[in-house]
Amino acid sequence: MGKASKDKRDIYYRKAKEEGWRARSAFKLLQIDEEFNIFDGVKRVVDLCAAPGSWSQVLSRKLYVPAKLSPESRDGDLPLIVAIDLQPMAPIEGVIQVQGDITNARTAEVVIRHFDGCKADLVVCDGAPDVTGLHDMDEFVQSQLILAALTIVTHVLRVGGNFIAKIFRGKDTSLLYCQLKIFFEQVTFAKPKSSRNSSIEAFVVCEKYSPPEGFDEKDLYHLLEKVGTPSGTSDDSGSEMNYCYYTKDCRSGWLEGANKVYIPFLACGDLSGYDSDRSYPLPSMQGGSHSYQSLDPVQPPIAPPYKKALEMKKAASTSTQ
Ligand code: SAM
C-alpha cells in the first residue's frame, strides 16, 4: 500500500503528519482529554509505554511548553514528564526518557526515583504487546501490562490523581473494572473517535485515586486476586489483611448472573468529527488534480523491533546471490 493510499484510508494518520505528531495515537489522548479534562492542574506525569512518543508530545505541548513560555515560569516549577518504553525514543522537549520494561521492578524503581518524594498527578499507559492475533493471549499479555502500570500507579500517583490505560476489550473486562474500582472513585471505559471500531482497543479512565485504608503496595496482587472470588471464600493465605475488596459496584465478588457488572462505556471526541473507519478523499483529489504529496512520518522509530529481522533478511538474500 502506498503512502498516499494510506493517507486517504486513514485520516488520523494523515492529520498526525500534518500536525507534527509522531503517531496517530496522539488524537486518542487528545479526545480523551476533551471528554475528561485530564490535564487540569497537572504538574507531574508518567507516560508508560511511550514510544515513538506521540502521547509524550501531547504532554509536552499541553503542559511543559505553555508553562515554559509563561512569563511567571521558573525552572524548578516546570512540569515533570517521565516517559518509559522498551524502545528508545527521539528526544521531546521537557520529557525525561527511561528505556526499560515496565513489568520489571527495576524500571518501576527508576520511575519512582524520578519523583523522589513527590507524587504524580497523572499516569498514562498506551502499552501494547506485539499482537499475535490469538485474542485470549493478546488480552492476557495486555492485562499484564495494565497490572504492571497499576503497580507503578500505587507507588507514584497522588491521592486524587488520575490513571488512563489502553485495554483490549474481552471477557475479563468486568473483572478489570472491579479491580480498578478498588483504587479509584470513578472508572470509565472510553472509545475515542480516532480508535477504529474494528479494533478491540479501548481506554480505561480511572479518576480520583483513593486506595483502601491501610493499603500496602506489597499486597497489590493479593488484593486484586480477591476480586471475583465468591463471597464467603476465606482468605487461606494466612495474611492478616483486612481489606474490604468488594467495591460499591462489585459487591458480591461474583461478576456474573444477578451480580453482573455494567461498565460505564463512553464514546469520546467530537462525534461529528473524522471517523477512523472511513476513507476520505485526499485534498488535491477534491479539486480534480493529482498533485497530492504525501508527507513523511514525523519521526520514524530509531530502533524498531523489526530492524533486526530486516537486516537478517537482507543478509540472507545477499548470501544466496
Ligand atoms: N503512546 C505511544 C505513542 O503515542 O507514540 C504509542 C505506544 S505503542 C502503541 C505501544 C508501546 O508499548 C510500544 O512502543 C512498545 O515498545 C511498548 N511496550 C510494550 N510492552 C512494554 C513493556 N513491557 N515495557 C515498556 N514498554 C512496552
From TrEMBL:
<dbReference type="GO" id="GO:0005634">
    <property type="term" value="C:nucleus"/>
</dbReference>
<comment type="function">
    <text>Methylates the 2'-O-ribose of nucleotides at positions 32 and 34 of the tRNA anticodon loop of substrate tRNAs.</text>
</comment>
<keyword id="KW-0819">tRNA processing</keyword>
<feature type="binding site">
    <location>
        <position position="101"/>
    </location>
    <ligand>
        <name>S-adenosyl-L-methionine</name>
    </ligand>
</feature>
<feature type="region of interest" description="Disordered">
    <location>
        <begin position="282"/>
        <end position="321"/>
    </location>
</feature>
<feature type="binding site">
    <location>
        <position position="126"/>
    </location>
    <ligand>
        <name>S-adenosyl-L-methionine</name>
    </ligand>
</feature>
<dbReference type="Pfam" id="PF01728">
    <property type="entry name" value="FtsJ"/>
</dbReference>
<dbReference type="GO" id="GO:0002181">
    <property type="term" value="P:cytoplasmic translation"/>
</dbReference>
<feature type="binding site">
    <location>
        <position position="53"/>
    </location>
    <ligand>
        <name>S-adenosyl-L-methionine</name>
    </ligand>
</feature>
<keyword id="KW-0489">Methyltransferase</keyword>
<dbReference type="InterPro" id="IPR015507">
    <property type="entry name" value="rRNA-MeTfrase_E"/>
</dbReference>
<feature type="active site" description="Proton acceptor">
    <location>
        <position position="166"/>
    </location>
</feature>
<feature type="binding site">
    <location>
        <position position="55"/>
    </location>
    <ligand>
        <name>S-adenosyl-L-methionine</name>
    </ligand>
</feature>
<dbReference type="GO" id="GO:0106340">
    <property type="term" value="F:tRNA (guanosine(34)-2'-O)-methyltransferase activity"/>
</dbReference>
<keyword id="KW-0949">S-adenosyl-L-methionine</keyword>
<keyword id="KW-0808">Transferase</keyword>
<feature type="domain" description="Ribosomal RNA methyltransferase FtsJ">
    <location>
        <begin position="21"/>
        <end position="209"/>
    </location>
</feature>
<dbReference type="InterPro" id="IPR029063">
    <property type="entry name" value="SAM-dependent_MTases_sf"/>
</dbReference>
<dbReference type="InterPro" id="IPR002877">
    <property type="entry name" value="RNA_MeTrfase_FtsJ_dom"/>
</dbReference>
<feature type="binding site">
    <location>
        <position position="85"/>
    </location>
    <ligand>
        <name>S-adenosyl-L-methionine</name>
    </ligand>
</feature>
<dbReference type="GO" id="GO:0002128">
    <property type="term" value="P:tRNA nucleoside ribose methylation"/>
</dbReference>
<dbReference type="InterPro" id="IPR028590">
    <property type="entry name" value="RNA_methyltr_E_TRM7"/>
</dbReference>
<feature type="compositionally biased region" description="Polar residues">
    <location>
        <begin position="286"/>
        <end position="296"/>
    </location>
</feature>
<keyword id="KW-0963">Cytoplasm</keyword>
<comment type="similarity">
    <text>Belongs to the class I-like SAM-binding methyltransferase superfamily. RNA methyltransferase RlmE family. TRM7 subfamily.</text>
</comment>
<protein>
    <recommendedName>
        <fullName>Putative tRNA (cytidine(32)/guanosine(34)-2'-O)-methyltransferase</fullName>
        <ecNumber>2.1.1.205</ecNumber>
    </recommendedName>
</protein>
<dbReference type="GO" id="GO:0005737">
    <property type="term" value="C:cytoplasm"/>
</dbReference>
<dbReference type="InterPro" id="IPR050082">
    <property type="entry name" value="RNA_methyltr_RlmE"/>
</dbReference>
